[in-house]
Amino acid sequence: MGEEGVKVKFTRIKTQIFASMRKIICPFDRLIDKIPEHGYHLDLGCGYGIFCSFLSEKKPNIDITGIELDEKKIAIAHENYANKHIHFFTGDATAIKATKEYDSITCIDLLHHIPSNYHEDVLRGVYSSLKDDGIVIIKDMDKQPFLKYLWNYIHDIVMTRSVHMYYISKQELVRLVEKSGFVLVEAQDIPNVLYAHYYIICKKDQHGHSKEEPS
Ligand SMILES: C[S@@+](CC[C@H](N)C(=O)[O-])C[C@H]1O[C@@H](n2cnc3c(N)ncnc32)[C@H](O)[C@@H]1O
Is the minimum distance from the CB of 22 to ligand 1 under 6 angstroms? Predict the structure, then answer.
């Protein structure tokens, strides 16, 4: 095997280890339970496509699109998981152009990697990409209790080699989604010894917000 072959094999093994760890750390199955069995799903900030692949295993009748800013991650996601039901594209979650409407959208541990003043832009893109009866599930990390927050911050520094994180608490996110034209369906903490996981589920507020035309 040549040097290039060794590199490819190493990257594959590394990704497999990362995927196994990610499934242990992030309660994907709690989120998958909330996603409809059929239709179109968009995963914003899909990383290496681990959630997309796991969702497809559990709910094979969904057509899944993953969008991610980092081209290298998308290349790996594509190589490992793309098939006729799972599609990956490079894109910026703060500037989503609605090309079709989805039954469900997830943003999993995405917002705290995006500067706070762009969070509303993400929600605007989600709003315009969601069917009128669709749901959005936003999973993120809370700022309390402090030790869990600190642990997650250290985790994020190690993973991203950056100190710039923009955590939004569950209460702050609920206020922001309501301001952005959604109604809250559910807001839950997900018990974990180390991490302050939470998720919220929202629908479009059919009365309070007029849909913006995609630009
Ligand atoms: C903690 S990772 C989560 C990945 C994936 N959702 C998961 O749960 O495995 C956050 C991801 O968001 C991506 N990201 C950050 N800013 C983004 C943006 N503006 N648009 C799309 N993806 C972004 C990062 O590159 C990273 O892959």
Answer: yes
Q: Provide the domain limits for residue 197.
A: 3-204
Domain count of the fold of the chain = 1
Nearest to 136 by CA among 207, 60, 73, 45: 45
Q: Is the dihedral of CA 119, 43, 183, 169 positive or negative?
A: negative
Tell me which residue of 115, 56, 108 sits closest to 87, measured CA to CA.
Answer: 56
- Which of 21, 51, 55, 68 for mutating ligand 1's site (highest number of atoms within 8 Å of CB)? 68
Instruction: List the CATH number of the domain containing 81.
Output: 3.40.50.150
Asked if residue 111 has its Cβ within 6 Å of ligand 1, the reply is: no
Q: What pLDDT, in 10s, does the model give residues 147-198?
A: 999 999 999 999 999 999 999 999 999 999 999 999 999 999 999 999 999 9
Residue 43 alpha carbon to ligand 1 centre in Å: 10
Instruction: Give the pLDDT confidence of 12-47 residue by residue, as tens digits.
Output: 788 889 889 998 999 999 999 999 999 999 999 999
Residue 98 lies in a domain: yes
